[in-house]
Every structure is written in C-alpha cells, then in structure tokens.
Amino acid sequence: MTEPPRPPGAGDPGDRPDPTAPSGSSYEPPTAPLSGAPGAGGYPPPGGYPPPTGDQPPAGGYPPPGGYAAPGVGYPTAGGYGAPGGGYGAPGGGYATDDDRTWSLIAHFGGPVGVIVGGSLLGWVAPLIALSAKGQQSPTVRAHATASLNFQITWAIANVIGFVLAIVTCGVLFFIPILTALVPIIFGIIGGVKATEGVVYRYPASYAFKK
To answer: Are 165 and 150 in contact (CB under 8 A)?
Structure first.
C-alpha cells in the first residue's frame, strides 16, 4: 500500500528529533561551533581571530616575562665608569709616581730657597737641576720645572736691574731690589703649593726663556 504524498512543510525525516536525545532538550540543527572550539567546517572561534600562540606578546602589548636583561647585565656599575667607585685613577695629585711629585716640588720650592740663599740671584738653580735630572724622562716634571725656571730667570734679571737703579740713584730707588726679591719668593711658594695639588702654576710676569 503506497503512502500518500505529504503536503509541503510536513517535515522531512532528516529534520526529526533525535530519539536518543534526553527528554526536555530541544533539538537544533548543526550550526557554527560554540565555546571557541574549532568545528569540523574550519570555523574560527568567536571574534574571528586565531588563539594566541607562545611567540606572541600577551594582552597589553608588553613582552613576555624574561624579555629583559637581568639587572646589572650590560650596564655600567655604580659610578658609571665600569670599576667600582666610578673608575677614576688612583689619587696622586696628577703625578704618575712619587718621584715626579718630589722633583716638581723641588723645582717650585727650590726657587724661593735659591733667592734667599743666593742673594736674590740664584732662584733659577733648583728648577734647572730638576729639569736636567728628570725633565727628559717625565713630561710632568718638565712642565713644572720649565714654568719655575722661566719665572726665576726673569726675576733674577729684574733684580740685577733693580740693584743697578738703586746704585745709580744713590739709594733713592733702594726699594726696587727689595720688590724684585720678594716677588720670586712669594710666587715661588704659591707655585709649590699648586704643585702639591698636581697643578702646573702659571707664573705671572714670566718670560719664556725655555720651552
């Protein structure tokens, strides 16, 4: 016995509910996959973007933990110059050795001593000795000795001129030799004090006899 034709919309056997489904649940035809799981048809999860992988930064645009160097790696140590304490050279007042310091002080302080002992005319002796003994070996000693030597020679000549003027004027200009003797003593001591700090003192009123 043949089954009469069904009217349109009467349903299709493929649209019937699944008899194995639990009672009370409604049947839905297959749609796009839910809960972000990829479906058989290759649908992407909700939002249209693939899930994040391990080589992508997390949300917020920051690199993953461990992307920065450990503290202290690749950076200078305290003081900013590599070695602890700032990386400066050892204190020594600008002298490479104690020998350089000693000869530099002799060059400066020896000038006033020579002026006092030598009647205002021998202030240049000590700087010349320092220059001859150590000037060729140490540029530092050479700079100090040359500065002191030029100054002491200049004022030794000035002292001679002062004596001549005092004699010619029958003692009227007696104070000139006194001044020309005090100047190399005072400034020679100042140059020695500066030398203790490692500074080459630039003497005033000094002619460069030796360079």
So the answer is: no
The C-alpha atoms of residue 208 and residue 211 are separated, in whole angstroms, by: 6
- Residue 203 binned pLDDT confidence (cut-offs 50, 70, 90): very high
- Which amino acid is residue 8, in one-letter code? P
E strand or H helix at 131: helix 125-134
Task: Read off the amino acid at residue 119.
Answer: G
Reported as a pLDDT band with limits 50, 70 and 90, residue 169 is very high
CA angle centred on 74, ends 70 and 79, rounded to 5°: 105
Which residue in 96, 183, 184 sits closest to 143, CA to CA?
Answer: 96
Dihedral, 30, 33, 34, 37 alpha carbons, nearest 10? 150
Predicted local confidence at residue 195, as pLDDT: 95
User: How many whole angstroms separate alpha carbon 149 and alpha carbon 122?
Assistant: 11
Q: At a CB cut-off of 8 Å and minimum separation 6, what does 51 contact?
A: 36, 45
Which pTM value belongs to this model? Answer: 0.56
How far is it, in rounded angstroms, from Cα 155 to Cα 119? 12
Residue 151 backbone dihedrals phi, psi, to 5 degrees: -65, -45
CA–CA dist 160, 151 (Å, integer): 15
The DSSP output letter for 14 is G
pLDDT band for position 54 (50/70/90)? low
